[in-house]
């Protein structure tokens, strides 16, 4: 499903060139459960941005479901992000003045779906993460774990081929982190492809494959189960 071949990402900062990614090859099949792990500055966040089509490589090719993302213009990349990738971020990124239901419906607005269909899908997605009884609440009426569940429901509502989670437990206590990772475990068991970006070994341990990044390169790629 994911093919990265010879990926480089370079930035110019003043008179210096920063090699954030320096020749990355990575292949991820459908329904894999993968952790991208590495310290701050290793390149894992840059790699996540490329996987999510939030950025493009300086060189190399990224094929998502057979499409070379380097050939896509900004509108086409936005379309891929909306249809193919579900994002879950550390800081939730929920709209505080909207209800839980409206937050989850939001990605479907850009597809031009009728409101009734958006609502049906959003309710289904919230029930999937155990929040079917919180539709009319606002984010500030929820716990941190519940807000992250809303973020997961929003990521899933468009039925993406890839669920991409960036430090999804970074703002949560250990018990709530375990609950969120159990949710990812269940989603993977249901057939969802999940990639988790983390620097925490106990979070990576939930995944079935660990890809370790260091100095812009893959330094280890191992299956754990």
Provide the CATH top-level class. Alpha Beta
The proportion of residues forming helix, as a percent range, comes to: 25-40%
Order of helices and strands: EEEHEEHEHHHEHEHEE
Terminus-to-terminus distance: 20 Å
Task: List the keywords.
7 helices; 225 residues; alpha/beta; Rossmann fold; 34% helix
Tell me about this structure.
By secondary structure, this protein is α/β, with parallel strands linked by helices. The chain has one domain (29-56, 73-223): P-loop containing nucleotide triphosphate hydrolases (Rossmann fold, 3-Layer(aba) Sandwich), CATH 3.40.50.300. It is 34% helix and 30% strand. Helix 4 crosses helix 5 (144-156) and helix 5 runs parallel beside helix 6. The model has no long low-confidence stretch (mean pLDDT 93).
Write the layout of secondary structure elements.
Elements: E1 2-13, E2 16-28, E3 33-37, H1 44-51, E4 59-64, E5 67-68, H2 74-84, E6 85-89, H3 100-109, H4 115-128, H5 144-156, E7 162-166, H6 174-189, E8 193-198, H7 201-204, E9 209-214, E10 217-223
Parallel strand pairs: 3-8, 3-9, 6-7, 7-8
Antiparallel strand pairs: 1-2, 1-4, 4-5, 9-10
Helix pairs in contact: 3-4, 3-5, 4-5, 5-6
What would a concise description of this structure say?
With 225 residues, the chain is α/β, with parallel strands linked by helices. It has one domain (29-56, 73-223): P-loop containing nucleotide triphosphate hydrolases (Rossmann fold).
């Amino acid at each position: 499903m994911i093919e990265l071949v010879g990926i480089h990402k370079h930035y110019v900062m003043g008179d210096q060139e920063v090699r954030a990614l320096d020749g990355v090859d990575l292949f991820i099949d459908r329904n894999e459960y993968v952790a991208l792990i590495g310290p701050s500055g290793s390149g894992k966040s840059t790699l996540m941005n490329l996987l999510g089509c939030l950025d493009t490589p300086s060189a190399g090719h990224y094929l998502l479901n057979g499409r070379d993302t380097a050939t896509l213009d900004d509108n086409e990349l936005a379309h891929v992000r909306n249809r193919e990738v579900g994002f879950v971020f550390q800081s939730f990124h929920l709209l505080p003045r909207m209800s839980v239901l409206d937050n989850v419906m939001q990605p479907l607005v850009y597809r031009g779906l009728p409101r009734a269909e958006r609502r049906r899908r959003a309710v289904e997605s919230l029930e999937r993460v155990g929040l079917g009884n919180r539709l009319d609440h606002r984010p500030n009426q929820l716990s941190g774990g519940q807000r992250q569940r809303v973020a997961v429901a929003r990521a899933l509502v468009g039925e993406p081929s890839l669920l991409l989670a960036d430090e999804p437990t970074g703002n949560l206590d250990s018990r709530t982190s375990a609950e969120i990772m159990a949710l990812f475990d269940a989603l993977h068991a249901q057939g969802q492809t999940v990639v988790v970006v983390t620097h925490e070994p106990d979070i990576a341990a939930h995944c079935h494959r660990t890809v370790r990044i260091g100095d812009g390169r893959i330094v280890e790629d191992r299956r754990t189960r």
